[in-house]
């Protein structure tokens, strides 16, 4: 089966998770009588995500369209979770950039787009929420073009498709419609994913090799090592070598292999290069480690994750306590408190 690996990137609340909901529903992942069919924010699975309406952890899901499996990875939309974004982009060959039709490109959008362009991902732009009362579609398009001109690493990246969407209604158009109530679905974006995003460049004839891009855990299988198979194929029960970031080697036996179908993990006996899998049985796997064929262990380049930062500003007091004496007043005392 053909494969496309696509990340969805956007600023907080620009509608990327809602767009994924539409992909899942329109690709017939759910029956119409299933609870998830009428649910919103399907991909935001933990309590904080649903409560705050943001995505913290990168999720993997997959849909099938025209005999092509599309692995969709919903990335965090907040700067605080930048490491998750980088690991996500490492598994993708293309990205859907979702931008609010009123707000336009936001700071986090620029950060993630820059990383995606540096990695050579093919970008599909979706201008979402075009039905908002204060939408500024033409203004936003101009801002997007300015952004690509500023950040593109080669001229080919300046040629990107743009689609107009109302994700909450599952609608998208190649041209801005005059009547937003007209019948439409997400077919234009599905077609673009197949025609514009390349299939993974992976050699299935070589020995198995995979970079661990994410970890997960549950009470039944223990630790899952997740990533895209770089080359070869992996089979349940084989012995592999874990090449850790600190150059240590250890052998382990693969207990189970899972691929994504919809929101479910499906247990399979074999997975091929280019697909995104979750493997169990490798208890000491860490992010950035390589899982490789035991007879020909070769490490992949380590993912360089941007370190988290803490920004602190010291300024005049503008709080309700202004004018009141504090306990610690001198610069030395403040420094000791910070340290």
UniProtKB/TrEMBL annotation:
Pfam families: GTP_EFTU, GTP_EFTU_D2. Keywords: GTP-binding, Nucleotide-binding. SUPFAM superfamilies: P-loop containing nucleoside triphosphate hydrolases (SSF52540), Translation proteins (SSF50447). CDD domains: BipA_TypA_II (cd03691), TypA_BipA (cd01891). It comes from Candidatus Kerfeldbacteria bacterium CG08_land_8_20_14_0_20_42_7. The lineage of its organism: Bacteria, Candidatus Kerfeldiibacteriota. The keyword DNA-binding does not apply. GO terms for molecular function: GTP binding; GTPase activity. One of its GO terms (cellular component) is ribonucleoprotein complex. This is Translational GTPase TypA. The keyword Transmembrane helix does not apply. Residues 1-201 form the Tr-type G domain.
């Amino acid at each position: 089966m053909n494969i496309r690996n696509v990340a969805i990137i956007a600023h907080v609340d620009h509608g990327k998770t809602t767009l994924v909901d539409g992909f899942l529903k329109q690709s017939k992942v759910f029956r119409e009588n299933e609870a998830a069919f009428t649910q919103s924010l399907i991909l935001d699975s933990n309590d904080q995500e649903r409560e705050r309406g943001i995505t913290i952890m990168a999720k993997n899901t997959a849909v099938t369209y025209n005999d092509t499996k599309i692995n969709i990875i919903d990335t965090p939309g907040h700067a605080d979770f930048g490491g998750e974004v980088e690991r996500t982009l490492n598994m993708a060959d293309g990205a859907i950039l979702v931008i609010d039709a009123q707000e336009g490109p936001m700071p986090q959008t620029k950060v993630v787009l820059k990383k995606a362009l540096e990695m050579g991902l093919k970008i599909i732009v979706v201008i979402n929420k075009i039905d908002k009362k204060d939408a500024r579609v033409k203004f936003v398009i101009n801002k997007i073009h300015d952004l690509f001109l500023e950040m593109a690493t080669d001229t080919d990246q300046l040629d990107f498709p743009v689609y107009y969407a109302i994700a909450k209604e599952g609608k998208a158009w190649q041209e801005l419609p005059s009547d937003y109530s007209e019948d439409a679905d997400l077919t234009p974006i599905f077609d673009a994913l197949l025609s514009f995003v390349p299939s993974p460049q992976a050699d299935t004839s070589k020995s198995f090799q995979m970079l661990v891009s994410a970890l997960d855990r549950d009470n039944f299988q223990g630790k899952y090592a997740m990533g895209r198979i770089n080359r070869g194929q992996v089979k349940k029960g084989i012995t592999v070598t874990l090449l850790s970031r600190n150059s240590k080697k250890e052998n382990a036996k693969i207990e189970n292999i899972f691929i994504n179908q919809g929101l479910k993990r499906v247990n399979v006996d074999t997975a091929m290069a280019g697909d995104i899998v979750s493997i169990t049985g490798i208890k000491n796997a860490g992010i950035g480690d390589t899982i490789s064929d035991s007879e020909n262990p070769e490490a992949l380049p380590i993912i360089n994750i941007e370190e988290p930062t803490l920004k602190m500003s010291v300024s005049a007091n503008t709080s309700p306590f202004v004018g009141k004496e504090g306990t610690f007043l001198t610069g030395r005392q403040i420094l000791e408190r910070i340290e």
